[in-house]
Amino acid sequence: MKKLIITAHPSSKWFTHKIAKSFEKWAIEKWDTVEILDLYDEKHTQDYLRFEDASELQKDEKRDSMQEKILEANELIFVFPVWWGNMPAILKNFFDVNLERGFAFKYWNKWPIWLLKWKTARVFTTCDAPSLFYKLFFLPMNLKWYFKMYLLGFCWIKLLSFDIFGLMRKKGDTEKEKILEKVYERWLGKK
User: Fold this and answer.
1) Nearest to 91, CA basis, from 37, 54, 166, 142
2) pLDDT tens digits, residue range 27-65?
């Protein structure tokens, strides 16, 4: 199994990076191939999507490289903070630029055809508000469903788990270790 871990936090000291590194360690112990893509690392940073005609996108070596990494991976793991009820803009840009028509999906007689079938994904997010606030279905945008139905589902990537860890600034080391235990359980495939 090849796992691609995509992180999106500007501070390398933040807990999201600890989650990503822990997931990487466990996967390597199981003989999985793992790569971490820190979207804030200059070598992975991509320009915002710009075009006049979507069918005539210019060649982009970084996009080609990212798409190759996505194609090679069996599982995508997204680790990021929730800001303003959503993912950081740099992660949204990752989706905009890389999951383009012709790569992630295409249309046939106005019907979508999914091109990334059989891939799986996991999402681990952190936030400073109580996590229940983001889990409630009646909020204007439920982040889990947004990932499941629109971002990943539209490409036929199956969302295996989605975890939001709240009140992060108030958590001590013991509570953070419990979070890593839950991430480990997700890695093992436990609910």
Assistant:
1) 37
2) 888 888 999 999 999 999 888 877 666 666 777 899 999
Cβ-count burial of 105 within 10 angstroms (0-12 exposed, 13-18 middle, 19+ buried)?
A: middle
pTM score, whole prediction: 0.91
Q: What is the Cα Rg of the chain in Å?
A: 17
pLDDT digits over 135-168, tens only? 765 554 588 888 998 899 888 999 999 999 999 9
* Residue that is written with structure tokens 């893509």 in the block: 37
Q: Which domains does the chain have, with CATH numbers?
A: 2-188 (3.40.50.360)
CA dihedral 149, 2, 176, 80 (to 10 degrees): -40
